[in-house]
Amino acid sequence: MKKATWLSMILLTAMIFILAACGPDREETGADEADVSEGEEPEKPESLKVWVNDDDNQKEFYEEVTEEFTEETGISVEIEHHPMDEQLDKVSLDGPSGNGPDLFYQPHDMIGEANLQGLVSPIQADEEQLSIYEDSAIEAMSYEGELYGVPDVTETYALLYNKELVEEAPETISDLEEIAEELTDASNEEYGFLMEAANFYYTYPFMTAEGGYVFNQDEDGTYDSSDIGLANEGAVEGAEMIQSWYQNDYIPKGINDDILNGLFEDGKVGAVINGTWAVKDYVKAIGSENLGVAPLPTTDDGDPLNSFSGVKGWLVSNYSEDKYWASQLGLHITNTENAKKYHEASGQIPAVTEVVESDVLQENEHFNGFAEQTQYAEPMPNIPEMAQVWEPMGDAHEYIADGNDPEEVLNEAVEEIQAEIEMQAK
Amino acid sequence: MQKDPREPRPQVKKHNVNVATLLGLIPGIGQFYNRRIIKGSIMLVLATAFVLTFAQFLNIGYWGLFTLGTMQGVDDSRTLLIQGILSLFLTVVAIGFYAACVIDARRDAVKIQNGWKIPSVRTALSDWFDNAFPYLLVTPGLILLVFVVVFPLLFMVLLAFTNYDRYNAPPGNLLEWVGFQNFMDIVNVPIWRDTFVSVFSWTLTWTFGATTLQIALALLLAIIVNDKRIKFKRTIRTVFILPWAVPAFVTIMIFSALFNDNFGAINRDILEPLLGFGLPWMSDPFWAKTAIIMIQVWLGFPFVYALFTGVLQSISSDWYEAADVDGGSKWQKFRYITLPHVLFATAPLLIMQYSFNFNNFNIIYLFNEGGPAVRGQEAGGTDILISWVYDLTFQNSMYSMAAVVSIIMGMMVAIFAFFQFRRSRSFKEEGQV
To answer: Which range is the signal sequence, renumbered to this chain (chain A) (predicted)?
Structure first.
């Protein structure tokens, strides 16, 4: 009996190895279909699937614009709602099995990673169609010289101030420090100027004011991840300035967005650095007439500070069978006319130049300041290596707040970023 | 196997056990030889169906498991891995079925040789049903267990031997087997080693510190409240259970705000007026660890307290009276009556408390996401293994490394639980204590 079992086991194992050597039959053809030559439209599909961010406010807008698209082209559009930060994972799982979308919505800094995973395909559009968008937004959506997304909205932060405490927006960093000096009374929880000073997203303007940079960028906009400028002289200078704010008690340790918003809404803070997303609550708390929005102060030499900007936009799935028409749908959703409507529906700043320069935005005093800052904003690097930057830099800012030597701390952070990039890239 | 000597059966001697076994190598044929036609046909049909249905699936499954795909962008290593695992399961089932067929053919042949009469289909079926009934009941649970527990576990274990991270993530790229490389990296690469050692030692300190303290506090309170002289027992007990009643994540987030260095009530309203200075709860690893242990004690003691209170009620007062007669001191009564009673009855649940805290992701993550940062180390000051794994997977997309740490973690818990459960009384059979 035992012998028989063993025999059968051996037979089966042998079979397995024979099987393992076979593999599936298939033709070794390239997966990509031929690109469409210019001026020629590929055949229209019956329908396209688009994944939009899971936000009820925008539901009607999307239904309206996709209906227009259907009327124009005869292609029906199926809308599915998925939270933006889950879409990439879902595309990676649903794409290969054919259930993925043709078009989906992502912030531009995910493009590098999406590209690594082979999830996105370049946008198929002509010069004229792309000319309506802001250059910086197009740049943000480009990766290694190719455009991977149709820009939809840009967001950045600016200086928001309480007009009851600060009459006029500070123009230079020195002015800002003066306000801090004048108004700060930490024992009463009153502050002249507050920001999340341990969050690299917000400290970027100060780290780069004197010449710091994240990754060096060549003329085409390609990033060189081996050249990190976060511990150079300029960056150290910026870090020292931030440290001096802690040391002078202008900014308390342990500040986070909850505390910052709470204090500002209580009318205890002169000015804060925050994004468009904060405006609604601030207006509710201190009144529309009391809230001022200005671009970030300049350096004492008058150079504007570069804030980080994020661009959200439409990406074409690499698994889509109708990449051309998916691109067209993306372009349609964000065209000048629809961008205006979208701004009205959501209050965000579209990436279309005409709309940014239009009266609608220019005359809205709360968006005015953001729109102005957008000119100086630099898109967050969209290469996958950027993901390794946030944590070490955030940690470095904590050490700076604790009073460690900024140069030492920044050098350590850069070493850590480099080590992590190397560790993953091997 | 009753032999009836009055009826000689000439065909019996002709029946050859070895022939039956050999024929049994093809499912069903051995049974035909034994003249169990229906049983044989069922086996033959099942075997053929299996081969026809699954041959191609197994083929691709094993091919994928060995190669993890060959065409970049077309093959999806994750899917192939899953198919491979399913193929393994199917193979195990098939081998089991196959072995059962062969063994059955041989066993029946032996019986026939010994003069056993082949039962009618009806008796055979009812015999089979009687024997198999308990197994039939267990089977759905087993199958569920295989797919819900074993399958994901196997997937994770296999991932630990691949190079799955951000830079070669499927579907765009193919994974590769890297053997024990990831395990060696944990030991050999300095930043990994330093982080692992410090996170691991803190995890152990945290597990033993927080859990032991919460049990000790619960025991103390339970014994005091159980004292005859205490009045308003019900009210006191209700109050003690309260921390359990509020969802833990709400409590932790409130505590996180309370402990804030500059704005938290603990520093500003308690320590500063009393002592004149505050403590760096959030920015100094030592104080962050202290705070987090205190919070866990607060969150965890009500459950143990409720447990102990219940057990204390069940200790007969005769024991204490007998001790009084013998002149036992308070300490002796506690040491030799109360403590053994309470601990033996609750040991398995207390062990659960330890393994729960070992993997207590909620409190670490909600309190300060494993912070504060520690210079020269990947993980934060209060990161335990599980929160570090979360960080590796969801912040840094280092899936294979996260799998490695998970395996180490799983083994720790398993070994710990295994030995402790075996030692505790609850798992010994009656009379073996």
So the answer is: 1-20
Chain A residue with Cα closest to B59: A19
Query: A254 and B98: CB-CB below 8 Å?
Result: no
Q: For this complex, say whether ipTM is above 0.85.
A: no
What's the total number of domains in chain A? 2
A29 vs chain B: nearest CA distance in angstroms?
A: 10
User: Pick from B71, B91, B102: which is nearest to A5 by CB?
Assistant: B102
- Which residue, chain included where needed, has tokens 């082949």? B118
> By residue range, what is the domain housing residue A332?
47-154+310-378
Nearest CB neighbour to B167, from listed A16, A22, A116: A116
B69: nearest CA partner in chain A: A23
Same domain, A80 and A217: no
Judge: B91–A12 Cβ closer than 8 Å, yes or no: yes
Which residue, A346, A363, A378, sits at the end of a domain?
A378
pTM, to two decimals: 0.81
* Of A262, A285, A210, residue with least CA distance to A241: A210
Contact residues on chain B for A384, CB-CB shorter than 8 A = 166-167
B59/A96 touch (CB, cutoff 8 Å), yes or no: no
Chain A residues lying within 8 Å of B99, measured CB to CB: 5, 8-9
Domain assignment of residue A31, yes or no: no
Q: Which tokens sit at A253?
A: 């340790």
Determine whether the interchain pair A7/B67 forms a contact, defined as Cβ–Cβ distance below 8 Å: no
Q: Cβ distance B287 to B294 under 8 Å? A: no
Residues A102 and A243 grouped into a single domain: no
CATH number of domain containing A59: 3.40.190.10
* Residue A271, domain member (yes or no): yes
Q: What is the token pair recorded at A247? A: 């040391």
Domain assignment present for residue A79? The answer is: yes
Do residues A192 and A328 both lie within one domain? no
Please tell me whether residues A274 and A398 are part of one structural domain: yes
Among B110, B93, B137, which residue's Cα sits nearest to residue B33? B110
pLDDT tens sequence across B14-23: 778 888 888 8
For residue A313, what are the β-bridge partners? A106, A151
Residue A29 inside a domain? The answer is no
Tell me, rounded to whole angstroms, the distance of Cα B431 from its chain centroid: 29
Confidence (pLDDT) at A34: 45
Range A224-256 burial, b when 16+ CB lie within 10 A, else e: ebeebbbbbebbbbbbebbbebbeeebbbbbbb
pLDDT in tens, A362-408: 788 888 888 888 888 889 999 989 988 998 999 999 999 989 999 99
Do the Cβ atoms of B76 and A387 come within 8 Å?
no
Model confidence pLDDT, tens digit, residues B217-235: 999 999 999 888 889 999 9
